[in-house]
Write a structure and sequence with these properties.
12 strands; 237 residues; 4% helix; Porin; 12-stranded antiparallel barrel; mainly beta
Length: 237
């Protein structure tokens, strides 16, 4: 059995035991991961998800992280997480550690596979969360489709031990390296949404590049905020 097939089974079989009562992540609308890892890659990343739901208190979720490729198959990242509630200021609320394992690698059109392993802690609520996600990316000359199929397990002193499954997908047009319009969709127990996103990448020097994403996700049910604005900046060096 190939590495890709083995990891597909490892990620999908636990879905059979998905408990009905699940919890949401700090926000289910986040980065959609690709399976690509480059040897000796280092990055500094900032993410912002802003909830401007008219019927709720405005909140902004921040992630600031550092990543380092261990080799051409594994990328390790560590994040500090903060929440900014209108009128209360920014509070440090948790940490996350991630490991991306690239299973296949080839240039040009085709499909690549990877797996994401993530461990996070909410320091305010003394809660832990472990997530495993199957990553897939299919590319043609002008289009790319990315899919993240995830299974999360949460535990802690203030909650019941619970499972949550989720899916996030992105379809983007590879118009140019600097400009890639895309559509993203998110399906989880507590958040379901879709919306347009713009992506781009600029080379600062031969060894340094800046990637950015900006978009808005519109809620598709009563539990999801009306609008979630997302912004990602990544410095690769």
């Amino acid at each position: 059995m190939s590495r890709a097939c083995a990891c597909v089974c490892a990620c999908t079989i636990p879905l059979l035991f998905w408990h009905e009562h699940c919890i949401a992540d700090i926000t289910d609308v986040d980065k959609i991961y690709t399976p690509h890892v480059e040897a000796d890659e280092r990055e500094i990343e900032y993410r912002l998800v802003f909830d401007d739901d008219a019927d709720a208190e405005e909140q902004a979720f921040h992630k600031l992280g550092y990543g380092h490729a261990l080799n051409d198959d594994f990328l390790f990242e560590f994040y500090a997480i903060g929440m900014d509630t209108k009128g209360d200021g920014l509070d440090l609320t948790g940490f996350e550690a991630e490991l991306i394992w690239q299973l296949t690698e080839h240039e040009g059109p085709g499909t690549n596979w990877g797996v994401l392993f993530e461990l996070g802690r909410n320091t305010e609520e003394n809660e832990w969360e472990q997530r495993t996600a199957l990553l897939a990316m299919h590319e043609t000359h002008h289009w790319a489709a990315v899919a993240n199929l995830s299974l999360e397990y949460a535990w802690g002193s203030g909650i019941e031990n619970e499972w949550e499954a989720g899916f996030a997908g992105q379809l983007r047009h590879q118009y140019s390296k600097h400009f890639k319009p895309a559509l993203e969709v998110y399906f989880a127990k507590d958040q379901k949404g879709a919306g347009p996103v713009l992506l781009g990448e600029y080379d600062v020097s031969e060894s340094t590049a800046v990637e950015w994403q900006f978009g808005v996700i519109f809620g598709m049910d009563q539990e999801t905020p009306d609008r979630l604005w997302k912004l990602i900046f990544m410095l690769e060096f």
